[in-house]
Amino acid sequence: MDPSSGSGDEDGTVSKKVSNLLPIYGNERTMNLNPLILTNIQSSHYFKVNLYELKTYHEVVDEIYYKVSHLEPWEKGSRRTSGQTGMCGGVRGVGAGGIVSTAYCLLYKLFTLKLTKKQLNGLITHCDSPYIRALGFMYIRYVLPPNLLLEWYEDYLEDDEEMDVKAGGGQVMTMGQILRQWLVKLEWFSTLFPRIPVPMQQKIQRFLEQKFPPQAVQVAQERAREDRRFDNRVEREPRPGPVRDDLRRDFLRDDRDRRVDTRRDRNRGVERRDPKYGDRSRSPNRNKYSHHGRDRSRERGDRYRRERY
Fold this sequence. Notes:
spliceosome, two-stranded antiparallel ribbon, mRNA splicing, Pre-mRNA-splicing factor 38, nucleus, PRP38
């Protein structure tokens, strides 16, 4: 056996392993997460007990498929920032915790596995759930160097797969919209992504402006909004319901006004035919004989009293 051939195979294996490794940007221990979020992840029962039992990449992917339903760092209604101002509430999330979301617990679990390029590619091209793909892209945004972001994101900036990113629902975005937002904005709900150096940020901005001109982006958004509005109209066909009381009152009021107008027109017609219609008075003989009845009734009363007494 030729020792040189054996050493060549070993060198090739080592080079493949090196090429499959992913560089880590920033803090290699915290994954560049917000300290409050990281503390809540590490102290959560879900991460310490449930996720501790998952040892392989495929087990974590299956857990994402079954457990993740949004991309916020906190579960709905678990974080209170009502009485805080400045950096103690709002974006940075300093000073007010909550229940950290399943998505961020699993994201940090992926970081502890030290994903390879092959595994990361498997995440962002996964066909079972958009949340598996989204966590792969979020891993790229938190962990990889900024100069590699466009290289990983470029082919998916127009991806139209939709998902609801808000805890509790109500904010549907396409994968392309999410990636474009992550490239140009640091804020993501109540946390921040790692800052991108200014020269790299300018390069990304120029690339996006060339690929997606502002006018074209606005037209595309309007078209997508109209399509969603049309789909909602088709799905929810209007059904005839009971007549509202205010509409019934308006109809009766209109009908009453119409009768009054008709009566007024009729009187006007009589006045035109008889000029003395408005000057007519009561008949002079109307009460001429009315006292006769009173007199007869008085006589009957007197006769009754005489006969009785």
